[in-house]
Design brief:
Elements lengths: L2 H23 L6 H12 L17 H22 L3 H6 L1 H25 L4 H10 L5 H11 L5 H27 L10 H12 L1 H5 L1 H36 L6 H19 L5 H12 L9 H22 L10 H25 L4 H10 L5 H12 L5 H26 L4 H16 L4 H12 L1
């Protein structure tokens, strides 16, 4: 069977399976994201091992499926940016930074310490702690969307902190790479290439690789956010007007999707940060665009109808519990650290910043999931020989388990009500009563005026 038909068959099997299971589990209050992850787990190497069955084994269909799923992650983060409450995100800035800071320090130190106590050498232990630092913002964003909480104060803090600790996780990765003398034969991006050039041509830089690497990463991250935010803020509406003049079906959606891809590529190449952060940055700016109604609904249909479910199924497909062997104590200890360090570290930070007990608990729950950065650190540890097969299997399992548990904990946390919830509800009702025309009607009026 040709590879394109194999890919079509994979999608035809896994996509409806996730939706059907989500429809069933929704009756029991289980979020859709968990159903999609479980479909991936069932289809992965631990159970059905569908990608290595004779029908799909040795072909490009499995790789193509995983690549398509990664595009789904970018679309998910763009939509999350579109649905972000901008004013609340700005108000949550200091709180988000403090939450992110403690959410990196606690997992890094506790993870490394517990791993060393269980017999892992310090080099591997530090890498393991580094893999626990960054939150998977895509998991938290999807859970908040499913729960209808994207405009809540907790969502602003969670998404802001998750983006910030993604950047902080990058610095941890740079520290580990320099301290353990990890070599990258084909560095991608401005910062790694400049670091390599400095080390090869400047003696002082070769003697202090950590200082050079950290300084260049800090510079590249700052430049990327300044250029990316400023350019989108200034040009997004003029660009959409130009896209509207293209005489083709859904031309605006296609061109905006191309911008999402460019922001993702530039995030990793110029900013040395995860591509999903670039997609979220563009969506965050587009949330205030006057003409966003021209593409918002189409993106939601493409994302939630195809790409986003594939992204979460693919996470389940990466799990293989058979490689854990008899190392269940190590898995249980690292999983406990992964949950407790974020729950207490981020929750306590939010509490100190005055968010209240219930909302601080929600923030802690929303920061538990791990994802892309954790897997990047794990892959780096494996490629340099610092991680063995067991440690790789443990980290992949921890990423999966935290991804599975986060939606359940967040759903449960939002069922616990507090006084500020009722105050927000009353203020929202007051605003609706004084504004007879909703935002979508207003934006469509603007669109007609632009025409």
């Amino acid at each position: 069977m040709p590879a394109d038909l194999q890919l079509a068959l994979l999608i035809a099997i896994l996509l409806p399976a996730g939706k059907i299971l989500a429809s069933i589990t929704k009756r029991f209050g289980i979020p859709a994201i968990l159903s999609e992850l479980l479909v991936g787990v069932a289809a992965g190497p631990g159970l059905l091992n569908i990608l290595h069955r004779p029908l799909f084994s040795g072909t490009a269909a499995g790789d193509a499926f995983l690549l398509l799923a990664q595009i789904g992650g970018l679309v998910l983060m763009f939509i999350a940016g579109l649905e972000t409450d901008i004013e609340r995100m700005r108000e949550a800035g200091p709180t988000a930074f403090f939450v992110a800071l403690l959410g990196v320090i606690w997992p890094f130190l506790l993870g490394a310490g517990v791993a060393h106590l269980l017999g892992i050498g310090w080099n591997a232990a530090w890498f393991l702690g580094g893999a626990l630092t960054a939150t998977s913002v895509s998991i938290s964003a999807r859970t908040l969307m499913d729960a209808g909480r994207m405009t809540s104060p907790e969502a602003s803090v969670i998404l802001g902190a998750a983006v910030i600790d993604d950047v902080m996780g990058l610095f941890v990765l740079a520290f580990l790479a320099a301290a353990c003398s990890a070599k990258n034969a084909n560095p991608f991006g401005v910062a790694p290439q400049l670091t390599l050039w400095f080390q090869q041509n400047i003696p002082w830089a070769g003697q202090h690789p950590l200082v050079i690497q950290m300084g260049l990463i800090a510079l590249c991250v700052s430049v990327y956010f300044l250029i990316g935010y400023g350019a989108a803020k200034k040009w997004i509406d003029p660009l959409i007007r130009i896209f509207r003049k293209v005489d083709a079906n859904e031309a605006v959606t296609s061109c905006v999707l191309a911008l999402v891809m460019l922001y993702a590529v530039s995030a990793e190449w110029l900013g040395s940060i995860a591509g999903i952060t670039g997609a979220y940055l563009l969506g965050y700016v587009c949330a205030e665009a006057r003409l966003k109604s021209l593409f918002e609904r189409t993106f939601a249909a493409i994302g939630h109808g195809l790409l986003i479910p594939l992204f979460f199924v693919s996470i389940g497909l990466s799990s293989n519990f058979r490689a854990l062997g008899g190392h269940w104590l190590l898995l249980a200890a690292i999983f406990a650290v992964a949950v407790i360090s974020k729950l207490l570290g981020c929750g306590m930070a939010a509490l100190v910043m005055g968010m209240g007990t219930v909302r601080s608990f929600r923030v802690g729950c929303g920061m538990i999931s791990r994802g892309e950065v954790g897997l990047i650190v794990t892959a780096m540890g494996a490629s340099t020989g610092i991680f063995n097969e067991t440690e790789v299997a443990v980290m992949v399992a921890v990423v999966l388990l935290t991804t599975l548990i986060t939606p359940l904990l967040m759903r449960g946390a939002f069922t616990i009500h507090c006084a500020p919830d009722f105050e927000d509800a009353m203020s929202s009702e007051a605003v609706e009563a004084t504004e007879p025309v909703d935002a979508s009607e207003y934006s469509m009026t603007e669109v007609r005026a632009e025409a």
